[in-house]
Design a protein that fits this description.
The chain is an alpha/beta fold. 37% of the residues lie in helices and 18% in strands.
């Protein structure tokens, strides 16, 4: 099972410029989470701070009992081995073929024989749909293939945590869908904790178990996907709907005069040209048939049911509506209960 990541009051600035402050969230073990936010909100900086490539100003980031903000270089080096990172461009070495790119971490950080390395590399290339492409150079393949090669390399040390920095950037919708399915399938197979930074609304709506959003140098929300997908928080609603009207502007935050003008135009019946409201819970992407059930999805459902009574009504209704009759019985819900008020107790029974 993947490791839990606990972030508490993490803050980062460059000089006098605050990037974000007092970010607190927990990445549940083995679950898939997404971090959203307008351009320039420091999402990539957050990923780099999580693995110690950048030093936060204050706060904690604890992985397996190790606070990577304050630990020694030696402990940081060892803890980083728990992470696999997919950078935006794949970050492949242009002079190496895909085989050597993927083998690089094994040669750098282990004492495995070339026979063992070959077995692992070919296995990871097959897992990401790149069998037969191991001799190609990065410049000879498509952007989507480079992303998958970068993911293969991120997997070779069998990480407990996978960080993906905009895995969909530069990809067309079909290849974005392929990458999304690949990440869900990987989670089903290796049960790793996954955090995806993305601008892609479809990815955010269909892939993760949990969603968070950075805005105005703060973490606006982080929690079960149903909470954000049904939220009426203005910045969340605007971002998920891709609307012009709302607190997000070209330079991230609109001033009060612009906000007042937009409200007046809306009151007068002017449409801002954005898409219609798509708020609501859509089905979550499932593993490819033949792969095991995601263990993280089951743990997540158990976890969410223990906090069901604390969630907003719309989120609660969406969660309960997604349950099968057997799950309703398992969690102590009445058949007619649409909002989760029929819970027999505040605890989740053991899995049948």
């Amino acid at each position: 099972m993947g490791a839990e990541v606990v972030v508490e009051n993490l803050s980062k600035s460059f000089g006098k410029q605050a990037i974000w402050r007092d970010v607190t969230l927990t990445l549940p073990p083995g679950e898939v989470s997404v971090l959203l936010g307008p351009s320039g909100t420091g999402k990539s900086v957050f990923l780099k701070s999580m693995i110690g490539l950048l030093k936060p100003d204050r706060g904690r980031c604890v992985v397996n009992g190790v606070d990577i903000v304050r630990c020694s270089e030696r402990r940081l080096y060892e803890t980083r081995k728990l992470f696999g990172v997919l950078f935006q461009d794949g970050a492949l070495f242009g002079s190496m073929n895909l085989y050597d790119n993927v083998a690089f971490p094994l040669r750098e950080h282990t004492r495995k024989s070339e026979t063992e390395i070959r077995k692992i590399v070919l296995e990871k290339l097959e897992m990401t749909g790149l069998s037969g492409a191991e001799k190609k150079l990065p410049g000879e393949i498509s952007g989507g293939m480079r992303k998958r090669a970068g993911l293969s390399r991120a997997l070779v040390l069998d990480p407990e945590i996978i960080l993906c920095d905009e895995p969909d950037s530069g990809l067309d919708p079909v290849r974005t869908a392929y990458i999304s399915q690949l990440l869900v399938d990987l989670n089903a197979q290796i049960d790793a904790t996954i955090l995806i930074v993305t601008h892609n609304i479809n990815v955010a709506r269909t892939v993760p178990d949990n969603i968070g959003m950075l805005f105005r140098k703060e973490l606006v929300m982080f929690g079960p996907r149903e909470v954000l997908l049904t939220s009426d928080e203005p910045v969340v609603e605007q971002f998920l709907n891709g609307r012009v009207r709302g607190p997000i502007g070209m330079s991230e935050e609109k001033d009060s005069a612009q906000m007042a003008l937009e409200k007046a135009r809306a009151a007068a019946g002017h449409h801002d040209g954005s898409a219609e409201d798509v708020r609501g819970i859509v089905p979550q992407l499932q593993p490819t048939p033949g792969l095991p059930e995601r263990k993280g999805a089951r743990r997540r459902k158990d976890r969410v049911m223990t906090i069901l009574h604390t969630l907003p009504p719309a989120a609660r209704q969406g969660i309960v509506a997604s349950l099968t009759p057997r799950e309703r019985f398992h969690y102590g819900l009445a058949e007619h209960d649409a909002e989760g008020y029929g819970r027999i107790s505040g605890t989740v029974p053991t899995q049948p």
